[in-house]
Write a structure and sequence with these properties.
Blueprint: E1 5-7, H1 17-21, E2 27-31, E3 37-41, H2 51-55, E4 61-63, H3 67-73, E5 79-83, H4 85-90, H5 94-103, E6 108-111, H6 112-128, E7 135-136, H7 141-150, H8 164-174, E8 181-186, H9 191-195, E9 206-209, H10 210-219, H11 248-257, E10 263-267, H12 269-284, E11 292-296, H13 314-338, H14 347-354, H15 368-376, H16 382-395, H17 401-404, H18 416-424, H19 434-494, H20 499-553
Parallel strand pairs: 5-6, 5-8, 7-11, 8-9, 10-11
Antiparallel strand pairs: 1-4, 2-3
Helix pairs in contact: 6-8, 6-11, 16-18, 19-20
Length: about 550
């Protein structure tokens, strides 16, 4: 599975947010060529939920789609575009977008709301002969990715009906006989995984996300208001446009079954995974389970999908959807009288007459073996693993239960136990432990204090020795001065014969005075050095102690 989520490794600051928020631990910590810790994505484990892209504050996680390839290929191939309902909320002038697409050569533009109606029709067919059947909805590719890779026992519960996008593409291929290429303008990073899956027949060739479309139009200075407003090429849909908001599938099924089914609605990947585990356990314990689980990766539905810019207020989206729903319901009531003419058929009656449910059937594969095979190469027997875990705890200086449950989550693994296991399995590095790093810094400060004290003591010893030597020199200078005085007395006593000796006595006195002055200056300097040294010593030790306390309490 090609992963559209990428890592710009030079931007990674190893803040570990991607590790912390990833629901299935699809990240690996490693050092770059300069020895800096970085976090990379493990593509084969990723379910493409997009959480790491959203939470990264450093621009290290980003995604790619097919926008540039699509706009290049539209000049070469016959092209149809299917547009997700979410895009209609993100582009207020979407009709001008249709006009622009037609101007650059796109042959057909379909509203995926029409495909959503086919999806709803397919779900209703499932319950015609088995009302007690339990199904996990599959329009969200992230949910399919997760189940196929991590919960293969739930594959049998995935709805055997294509998503709205694939239903629209299948309709174009099989019923409109479109032989060209199809691009989806989508709100979702993960749609590419669905399109390249062998079970979807390669009907959709490009995943072009809302965010990247806007960037493309801005980059190429394309003003949509310069293009005519045009309508979709498909017939008007029923309630399929509600699929893009939370519970949209539920709204449709409730409408057509008069709320006869037990439908569970779940949004947000963390809630999703927790619920799917609960669902699995209920199956195992033979407890009642919902007939339909309407489940989406994005907390606010596809309108705020991973491939959107999220620029629209949720209330505006809901209001617009509700208004459109009211118009449909009003029109439906009016249409009932009109449909007395047997030549006019409702949309679902048309599906019954013209569509083969088998054309819209989705199959799935157990892909957990891919992960299991890779993990088996890293297998560590339980005894060795237990020993390795203890070794890591020892290095971390976590020798008590309190220390082993510090659980600060700076490493991103939420608990010390999870982190140590990640280190043993080579998914993380021991340096990522904040407690461990603090201990190293604490030891470093301790060593600095010891070295500082030792060096300062050496300096003080040297100054003391200088003081002692200076005292000796002072005695010598005093003796020289006494010799000078005695020489002067002797020279005076000698009279004329002592004149030469007087000169010598005078020079000796000068030497004595000079020595005295040097000794006084040196003594003053030494005292000043000692005073400044003591001040500096106090300040440095105070700073080290303060910094150490701050680090250990962070």
């Amino acid at each position: 599975m090609n992963n559209p989520i990428k890592t710009k490794i030079e931007n990674c600051e190893s803040c570990n947010r991607c590790i912390s928020y990833c629901p299935i631990h699809a990240n690996k910590m490693e050092k770059d060529k300069n020895g800096h810790i970085k976090v990379n994505i493990v593509g084969e484990r990723c379910i493409q939920c997009g959480k790491c892209v959203n939470v990264c504050k450093h621009g290290a996680r980003y995604f790619l789609d097919d926008t540039d390839v699509f706009f290049n290929d539209v000049k070469k191939y016959d092209m149809a575009v299917i547009i997700a309902p979410a895009l209609l909320h993100n582009f207020k002038n979407y009709k001008n977008l249709i006009g622009y697409l037609k101007s650059i050569g796109v042959k057909l533009v379909y509203d995926i709301s029409f495909g959503a109606d086919i999806t709803t029709w397919g779900y209703l067919k499932l319950y015609e002969n088995n009302l007690n059947r339990s199904v996990i909805a599959q329009p969200c590719p992230v949910i399919v990715n997760y189940i196929e890779h991590y919960e293969p026992t739930l594959i049998q519960y995935l709805a055997p009906v294509h998503s709205p996008a694939l239903c629209a593409a299948t309709y174009l291929k099989k019923y409109k006989f479109f032989s060209g290429r199809i691009a989806m303008f989508s709100p979702c990073i993960a749609k590419e995984a669905e399109f390249v899956d062998p079970n979807t027949n390669s009907y959709v060739n490009y995943n072009v996300t809302t965010k990247k479309i806007k960037e493309y139009l801005e980059k190429h200075k394309i003003n949509l208001s310069n293009y005519p407003a045009e309508e979709f090429d498909n017939i008007s849909p029923n309630l399929g446009f509600t699929f893009s908001r939370p519970g949209g599938l539920r709204e449709n099924v409730d409408f057509y079954t008069n709320s006869a089914l037990w439908i569970k609605q779940v949004e947000g990947i963390d809630h999703d995974l927790k619920y799917l585990n609960e669902f699995k356990n209920r199956v195992k314990n033979r407890k009642p389970i919902p007939q339909l689980v309407d489940i989406l990766n994005c907390p606010h539905g596809c309108n705020y999908g991973t491939g959107t810019a999220e620029e629209v207020d949720s209330d505006d989206v809901d209001y617009a959807t509700n208004q459109k729903k009211k118009q449909f319901l009003t029109g439906e009531e009016q249409r009932k009288a009109y449909l007395e003419d047997e030549n006019n058929k409702s949309l679902f009656e048309m599906f019954d007459n013209e569509l083969n449910p088998g054309d819209f059937k989705r199959n799935y594969n157990d892909k957990s073996l891919i992960i299991k095979e890779r993990e088996s190469k890293k297998y560590i027997d339980p005894v060795t693993k237990a020993n390795e875990i203890e070794k890591i705890y020892s290095i971390l200086d976590k020798d008590t239960e309190v220390k082993r449950n510090h659980n600060c989550n700076a490493c991103g693994f939420h608990t010390c136990n999870n982190f140590v296991k990640a280190v043993v399995s080579k998914k993380s590095l021991i340096e990522a432990c904040f407690y461990y790093s603090n201990a190293i810094i604490h030891r470093s400060f301790k060593e600095i204090k010891q070295h500082l004290n030792a060096n300062l003591t050496k300096v003080e010893t040297k100054l003391t020795a200088i003081d002692e030597n200076q005292s000796t020199l002072h005695d010598i200078a005093r003796n020289i001065n006494l010799i000078s005085i005695n020489a002067s007395i002797e020279a005076a006593s000698a009279g004329t014969y002592g004149k030469g000796f007087t000169v010598v006595a005078s020079e000796i006195k000068k030497l004595a005075d000079k020595s005295k002055n040097v000794m006084v200056a040196t003594s003053k300097s030494n005292n000043e050095i000692k005073e400044q040294l003591n001040i500096l010593k106090g300040q440095l030790i105070e700073e080290l102690v303060t910094s150490d306390k701050l680090i250990m309490t962070d």
